[in-house]
């Protein structure tokens, strides 16, 4: 008998104490985010120490491009999470498997397209970004290899999203751990040519990431079939590997705005780094390091936001609206406490943290310390926005969070950064962060309280209360 027809979706997110359930579900996501960010930070240390500030500036520019081009795929994955979660909350396991099958085909095609775009147009985009001349060739070499691995990287991320949508956050963490460990080990070996490995410089760092993600993805697929995961596509389910246009329509209608939300963030960062690049390689390196450190500060908000999206989606499918609201405010409180704690710790060791990535003799360290002093605390406000937006999106209401992000970043942060920079100098640019994050949080809370997001419909029954 097909396990999908005999076994319920477990673990369920519609039962048990909310605080404990949210904590236990978000903890593996948080640890996974820590692993990914720590992985990137360690690789930045290798690159900065072995290859210098120009190479570090190159990877900062390259990573922003990658974030931009993968946004289209991210939105589809998140839409699949919501569809799967609502179907499982309503006990429609076969419908959830249909979402998995269609998402797999659609996602594979999109990932190949995005990877090709990244490989072919890397140099053109880097030139448009005003990448410092002394970092351009390094950035091109790094970017092209990274994007060659996009289909494997985001195949893995789709599987991870499906698991989280069904309530399993532990399995993705284990394979993230494997990927991060391989990447950290391979980076210095391929950068410096240690032992039998060739000396490849910055290309070696990119190849290490490619290899580690490929191995992790293949082993994750093998593991799920070995364990007979209840949403896997079996031989009898091959007909589900098709483009079901009803599901495709929902994935596009809900996924495109979420992907565009990442595009908004990426475009905003591209505009910002274009401004920062005009101050030279040291400024670009300082900005890259400050953003690397801020990624740690954002981790609780991202983990809790991901957890509340999965939890709220299942509870919306089950019609448990009182539980949905309690999930929201429990998530907000968790974010304020955890993000505030991380901000306080990093402020105590600000200079030491920045010095991990940069040579101590230049001015880039002082620049990075200054950026952190102004921006870090404002990520508490970003976290409030992210958690509330996660619940709103879990109903399928994706447009307003996108509009709020666009207003806060493109029409508040970037114009203010440009104005402050040109009027008061480099040090004043960073006040644009707390102002824009405050506006984003306020607007999203107002929509949560007074908007009609609960009336949004996906496939099948209405999600509204």
Characterization of the model:
The structure is a single chain. The protein is an all-alpha fold. The protein has one domain. Helix content is 78%, strand content 0%. The protein is built from 17 helices and no strands. Helix 12 packs antiparallel against helix 15. The longest helix has 38 residues. The two termini are 36 Å apart. The N terminus and C terminus are likely disordered. It is a multi-pass membrane protein. Keywords: Cell membrane, Membrane, Transmembrane, Transmembrane helix, Transport. GO terms for molecular function: antiporter activity; xenobiotic transmembrane transporter activity.
Question: Which terms would index this structure?
Answer:
globular; disordered C terminus; Membrane_Transporter-Flippase; 465 residues; xenobiotic transmembrane transporter activity; 17 helices; mainly alpha; disordered N terminus; cell membrane
Order of helices and strands: HHHHHHHHHHHHHHHHH
Q: Figure out the total of helices.
A: 17
Please tell me what the overall shape is: globular
Instruction: Please state roughly what percent of the residues sit in beta strands, choosing from under 5%, 5-15%, 15-25%, 25-35%, 35-45% or over 45%.
Output: under 5%
Rounded to the nearest angstrom, the radius of gyration is 22 Å
Largest sheet: none
Mean pLDDT reading:
84
Low-confidence stretches: 1-9, 461-465
Structural class: mainly alpha
Ends: how far apart?
36 Å
Tally the beta strands.
0
Helix content: over 70%
* Domain count: 1
What oligomeric arrangement do these chains adopt?
single chain
Protein name: MATE family efflux transporter
Membrane topology: Multi-pass membrane protein
InterPro entries: MATE_fam, MdtK-like, Membrane_Transporter-Flippase
GO molecular function: antiporter activity; xenobiotic transmembrane transporter activity
């Amino acid at each position: 008998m097909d396990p999908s027809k005999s076994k319920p979706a477990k673990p369920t997110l519609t039962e048990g104490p909310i605080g404990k359930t949210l904590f236990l579900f978000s903890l593996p996501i948080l640890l996974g985010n820590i692993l990914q960010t720590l992985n990137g930070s360690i690789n930045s240390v290798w690159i900065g120490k072995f290859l210098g500030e120009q190479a570090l500036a190159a990877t900062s520019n390259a990573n922003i491009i990658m974030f931009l081009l993968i946004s289209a795929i991210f939105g589809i994955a998140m839409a699949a999470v919501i569809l799967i979660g609502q179907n499982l909350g309503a006990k429609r396991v076969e419908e959830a498997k249909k979402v998995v099958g269609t998402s797999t085909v659609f996602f594979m095609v999109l990932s190949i397209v995005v990877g090709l775009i990244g490989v072919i147009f890397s140099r053109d985009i880097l030139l448009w970004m005003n990448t410092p001349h002394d970092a351009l060739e390094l950035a091109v070499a790094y970017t092209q290899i990274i994007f060659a691995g996009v289909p494997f990287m985001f195949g893995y991320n789709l599987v991870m999203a499906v698991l989280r949508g069904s309530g399993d956050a532990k399995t993705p963490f284990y394979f993230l751990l494997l990927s991060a460990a391989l990447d950290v080990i391979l980076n210095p070996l391929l950068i410096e040519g240690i032992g039998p490995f060739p000396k490849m410089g910055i290309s070696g760092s990119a190849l290490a990431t490619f290899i580690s993600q490929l191995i992790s993805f293949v082993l994750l697929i093998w593991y799920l079939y070995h364990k007979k995961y209840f949403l896997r596509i079996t031989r009898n389910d091959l007909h589900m590997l098709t483009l079901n246009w009803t599901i495709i329509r929902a994935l596009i209608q809900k996924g495109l705005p979420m992907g565009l939300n990442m595009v908004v963030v990426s475009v905003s960062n591209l505009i910002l780094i274009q401004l920062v690049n005009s101050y030279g390689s040291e400024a670009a390196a300082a900005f890259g390091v400050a953003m690397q450190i801020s990624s740690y500060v954002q981790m609780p908000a991202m983990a809790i936001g991901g957890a509340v999206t999965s939890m709220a989606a299942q509870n919306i499918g089950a019609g448990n609206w009182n539980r949905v609201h309690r999930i929201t405010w429990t998530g907000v409180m968790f974010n304020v406490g955890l993000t505030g704690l991380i901000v306080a710790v990093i402020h105590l060791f600000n200079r030491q943290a920045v010095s991990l990535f940069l040579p101590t003799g230049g001015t880039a360290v002082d620049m990075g310390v200054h950026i952190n002093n102004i921006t870090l605390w404002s990520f508490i406000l970003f976290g409030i926005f992210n958690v509330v937006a996660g619940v709103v999106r879990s109903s399928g209401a994706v447009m307003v969070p996108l509009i709020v992000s666009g207003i806060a970043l493109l029409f508040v942060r970037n114009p203010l950064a440009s104005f402050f920079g040109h009027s008061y100098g480099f040090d004043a640019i960073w006040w644009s962060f707390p102002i824009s994050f405050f506006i984003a949080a306020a607007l999203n809370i107002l929509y949560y309280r007074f908007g009609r997001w609960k009336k949004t419909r996906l496939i099948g029954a209405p999600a509204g209360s």
